[in-house]
TrEMBL record:
<feature type="binding site">
    <location>
        <position position="204"/>
    </location>
    <ligand>
        <name>pyruvate</name>
    </ligand>
</feature>
<feature type="binding site">
    <location>
        <position position="51"/>
    </location>
    <ligand>
        <name>pyruvate</name>
    </ligand>
</feature>
<keyword id="KW-0457">Lysine biosynthesis</keyword>
<keyword id="KW-0220">Diaminopimelate biosynthesis</keyword>
<keyword id="KW-0704">Schiff base</keyword>
<keyword id="KW-0456">Lyase</keyword>
<comment type="function">
    <text>Catalyzes the condensation of (S)-aspartate-beta-semialdehyde [(S)-ASA] and pyruvate to 4-hydroxy-tetrahydrodipicolinate (HTPA).</text>
</comment>
<feature type="active site" description="Proton donor/acceptor">
    <location>
        <position position="138"/>
    </location>
</feature>
<dbReference type="GO" id="GO:0009089">
    <property type="term" value="P:lysine biosynthetic process via diaminopimelate"/>
</dbReference>
<dbReference type="Pfam" id="PF00701">
    <property type="entry name" value="DHDPS"/>
</dbReference>
<protein>
    <recommendedName>
        <fullName>4-hydroxy-tetrahydrodipicolinate synthase</fullName>
        <ecNumber>4.3.3.7</ecNumber>
    </recommendedName>
</protein>
<dbReference type="InterPro" id="IPR002220">
    <property type="entry name" value="DapA-like"/>
</dbReference>
<feature type="active site" description="Schiff-base intermediate with substrate">
    <location>
        <position position="166"/>
    </location>
</feature>
<dbReference type="InterPro" id="IPR020625">
    <property type="entry name" value="Schiff_base-form_aldolases_AS"/>
</dbReference>
<comment type="similarity">
    <text>Belongs to the DapA family.</text>
</comment>
<dbReference type="InterPro" id="IPR005263">
    <property type="entry name" value="DapA"/>
</dbReference>
<dbReference type="GO" id="GO:0019877">
    <property type="term" value="P:diaminopimelate biosynthetic process"/>
</dbReference>
Amino acid sequence: MDMPAKTVFEGIWLPMVTPMRGGHIDLDAAQALARYYRNAGIAGLVLFGSTGEGNLVSMPEKIDMIEAIASDPHALPLVFGAGGVDTRGVAAAVRRLDKYAPAGYLVPPPYYLGPSQAGILWHYRQIAWATQRPIILYNIPKRAGVTMTVETMEALAALPNFGAVKECNPSVLSALNARRRLDALCGDDLALLDHFLAGGRGAIPAAAHVYPERYVEVMQLARNGHAEAARQMFEPLRGLARLLFSEPNPAPIKRALYLQGLIADELRMPMMPASRELGARLQRAMGLVQHSASRLQTA
């Protein structure tokens, strides 16, 4: 049965990495990761975004990973990343993936081309014709090379498929939250606490790969008005989050998950593993987070 078009994306949605081993997707690790994040309280998974190396993964590989994760009867809802330069190619991919009835698609503007706002509107409208599933706008100028204006986002929000945006600029995120014309999902991991304290409903934070249960608890404390407790819990995560983005994403996240014994430390070329120096810094930062968690529990 089709989901209502105006799906509400609440809670922490994780833009999950694509685990790899020996040049192939590690389907066993993908299933184990999905279970791990479900048990940690994550609301849903976003597959094949930039953190998931989506542009380096073929369509047959994507289908294998979707089927592996969805085979769990208790699987989390899935959003699929659908980015690309060619609008027709993105729409074709969406039509092919629609049979898996995702909770939605995360769609950035066409990157590299630098289209006008009118061109961005056209791109999204064509993709909306390809599916009845919800579409989450993804405003990420650093990667797309173009910025969607608030007016463009709100024009799309008037259409049935569009009800949310992943916004990576904290000031724009704040403006969208104040205007309340569409749900703004926090895409800047360091702004997550302020977002939830200001009444934000959802986030897609890549840093939540590491200690996901703490991100869920920060969100719950903030939502329940326990601002100081939320700040105390979030503060040790800030330094770790900065390290997780200090080299090209998702290399630091994959190194951290490798250090936890969850996946192999492998990316698809031209993406390269994190440096040895960063690995040592990550290990120290993760130790500090664990120490702070123990201290908060005994306080």
